[in-house]
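Hey L., structure's done. Input below.
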Amino acid sequence: MKLHVYVHDRPVATLESTDGFRHVMSYHPDVPAERFASLLMPVRTESYVYPELHPLFRMNLPEGFLLSVLQEQVGPHVGASPLSLLSVVGRNAIGRVKVATPGADPTQPPVPFDLQGVLRGDNSEEAFVDLVRRHAASGVSGVVPKFLSPNALGVHGKGTLATERYIVKGTTARLPGVALNEHLCMEVSRQAGFPTATTEVSDDGQALVVHRFDFEADGTTRKGMEDLCSLLALRPEQKYESTWERVVGRIKDVTPQAGQQNAALSHLADLLLLTYALRNADCHTKNIALLYSDRDHIALAPVYDMLTITVYDDYAKNPPGMPVEGRSSWMPGKALERFLQTRCNVMPAQTRICVERICEAIVQVTPQVVAATQRYPAFHETGKRMLHAWNEGMNSLRLQKAWSLPSLDASIAAASFSDPKPFSPEKPEKIGRSPLLGRR
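Output:
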């Protein structure tokens, strides 16, 4: 199979595989240097050969439920190989790069999307399944189920729906209140003054709409976007198999200009501190990305996919998604401050200012969490756990004894919250044991 690669809707290369394993991308002659497809693949005459699909294109393949839907729905027609699936989803890839079959129009408009309908919560399961089948979204990952209808696909249903302008996420029984959880965590990031993706919550609190941020200031032209999983040449399933040190190293590799490198590392330091404060155990290499207009304008993407995942039973005991100086602990001690200084060029005084901004933002957003627990009964336990987790998170950022940081104890008491319910993670099903056998 041979596919065409486009940058800003102009053809720049071909991508093909003759045996399903060895994949070759070749730039067309006379392609301008600024129309590179990936930071890892500058324009050149020699082809880029990978034993598997190139990291950039792997990044734009779906995961989880949507992947299984695509394999079942389109596999019998075009095949289920990564390249075959890319031929279906490649026109809706993240960033400025698109992939399409020969003769296809890469500018084909997406399926019409009713944003207000989602926010009202009036989309049906049938509408969601129809959209997924007609308009496969790609490149979006994470533990949060992303689908159109909060009630779609049952308790364990997971999927992804990314449109031209939005990403839609829903809620399941295993992650109660997760849409509100993420929205409120993103609100902390916004209040702290960090670049943050815009989010909206449906009236019933069950769906989250995230505005896509891979656009230039004109609102039309796409920026290039590559997550660190792709830039580190990891498979999507290896997104946790990295470290913050490796992330910093790769950012330095692809941002040679001192100014943009320092800015990216400073924002990465903000993200790392926010991750500890909000107890986001799901911050991995696919949740960190670079945006760029060209090689002279590369920046860290706004904060996205930020949530207090440790409030859920199945994730309560999870350590941070990636270690710092070999430590996978929520109490990093001196290691965190040392990492920020030696790797990100963020001095202790700057770290303290950032920590204070985050803590102040948490205090400012706390009333919104309390209000949400009162408005949405299904969110009550989740919201209560979030405030306890944030309280512990702020305390873990007291990197020096002399620092005086706020506490949420008074707010928790004023809300008359009881202690959180004990965590009870679901026990894995024993495979191969018949229910007809007697107990041992």
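The first strand starts at residue 2 and ends at 7. Residues 348-375 form the longest helix (28 residues).

-- N.
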